[in-house]
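--- STAGE predict ---
source: upstream dedup step, 1 unique chain passed
mode: sequence only
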Amino acid sequence: MAARRKARRLALQALYQWQVSSSPVNQIEAEFIADHDMTKVDGEYFSEVLRGVPTSLTELDKQIERFTDRPTAEMTPIELAILRMGAYEFMHRVDVPFKVIINEGVELSKVFGASEGHRYVNGVLDKLAQALRAPEVNAGRQPKS
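--- STAGE serialize ---
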């Protein structure tokens, strides 16, 4: 799990750079691989998320904006990158439990985001999970007999 957590952290930083610089994703990916020790990072996961978010951008933003109080253009770049990553994982990585996606997003926002940004990220990711992973979310809420 530590390798995947490191991959998410680097993917967030790379997506942030992509958002603010508009540099090509393949250039950013190459720079990150050259500049970081990738031996203890899930490199496939890093690349998938880094490449997948930009290619799915329209659909991701559409899903995110269903549950936010402002358009994505008005969000901080860190919040937006975290929400896009979370939405991507909900939609394309069904092997990752929804609780892990929410927790990782919250933890990343505590490290990189504004002081109370993790609360916003938590609320949006929770609503996204309910919409995009309803059977999984509801299965976790069923009373045990």
